[in-house]
Design brief:
NADP_OxRdtase_dom, TIM Barrel, 314 residues, oxidoreductase activity, alpha/beta, 10 strands, NAD(P)_OxRdtase_dom_sf, 39% helix, Auxin-induced protein, eight-stranded parallel β-sheet, oxidoreductase
Length: 314
């Protein structure tokens, strides 16, 4: 299987991860109603069996429940799992020691002494600034509690500042986690993707299936009832879905051609951009297995451009 390096000197992993925002989240994702611990454990094991070993979480996902679930699941596995989690810079965390305490709490929930990647969730600067964040995380790399430093939702300029602060400590910036999909290509025009390539920073693409819009499940003539965050997104309305129809038709055509699903086509398109690791969510084993079907093959250049054109202006 093709692999990609997470940052300039990070681990070589499959160019696909597993996002776990929904795990334990009862506010946006109806955890405990449509799915629960048994289902997400199935997603965890199915991902690892398919070679997807990067698991992305955060301290605020389910108010820590996502990390607790992952920690429990990992205790039952012997194979290596690459865990990435995040620190949220809340305004009442005004000392550098608060970052250290948050990391300690995440490690305890994960039942681990060290993790692959620790990220600043948002570039929010109150009392603590980017140089503070990066100084603490560089020190944690040297202590061995984290193996690499990442950021999330950082602009091109903010990413460059974080990279410079870390470089002064002899530590590379490994990643920037941002929204990226066929339906959200803002990073191609706002400088983030170009800057990431120049700095050798890996893009972790969250919402790579646009919350399910690119799976083909939601169509104007047959849209399932909406729950959680999808109810707030106008793209899921009948009008919004009609606008997506030409792209969905192309995804269907390419899916038939390659004996894949529309979701697998959309994820493979992202992987084809280079230095990009999509991290789609999965609530059960079936979804995880479908996501993993994006690996081990490639769209050709003409198909990649066809998808780009079909998604233009949507």
């Amino acid at each position: 299987m093709e692999t990609i390096r997470l940052g300039p000197n990070g681990p070589s992993i499959a160019p696909l991860g597993l996002g776990t925002w929904s795990w334990g989240d009862t506010l946006f994702w109806a955890y405990g109603k449509d799915f629960g611990p048994q289902e997400v454990e199935g997603a965890f094991h199915a991902s690892l069996e398919a070679g997807v070993t990067l698991i992305d979480t955060a301290e605020i996902y389910g108010f820590g429940e996502s990390e607790r679930l992952i920690g429990r699941f990992c205790r039952e596995k012997t194979q290596k799992v690459e865990i990435a989690t995040k620190y949220f810079p809340l305004p009442w965390r005004w000392q550098r020691s608060d970052i250290t305490k948050a990391l300690t709490a995440s490690l305890e929930r994960l039942q681990m002494d060290t993790i692959c990647l620790y990220q600043i969730h948002w570039p929010l600067e109150f009392w603590l600034k980017t140089p503070d964040f990066m100084a603490v995380l560089a020190a944690e790399v040297k202590k061995g509690r984290i193996q690499a430093v990442g950021v999330s939702n950082y602009s091109a300029q903010q990413m460059a500042i974080a990279h410079e602060c870390l470089a002064a400590q002899g530590i590379p910036l490994a990643s920037n986690q941002v929204p990226y999909s066929l339906l959200n290509r803002e990073i191609e025009s706002n400088g983030i993707l170009t800057q990431a390539r120049q700095l050798n920073v890996t893009i972790l693409a969250y919402s790579p299936l646009a919350q399910g819009l690119l799976t083909g499940k939601y169509r104007p003539e047959n849209s399932p009832s909406l729950q959680g965050a999808r109810r707030l997104d106008p793209r899921f309305s009948t009008k919004g879905l009609r606008k997506l129809a030409p792209l969905l038709t192309l995804l269907d055509t390419l899916a038939d051609k390659h004996d894949k699903t529309p979701a697998q086509i959309a994820l493979n398109w992202l992987i084809a951009q280079g230095n990009v690791i999509p991290i789609p969510g999965a609530k059960n084993a079936s979804q995880a297995q479908q996501n993993a079907g994006a690996l081990g093959w490639q769209l050709n250049p003409e198909e990649i451009e066809q998808l780009r054109s079909a998604a233009q202006g949507i």
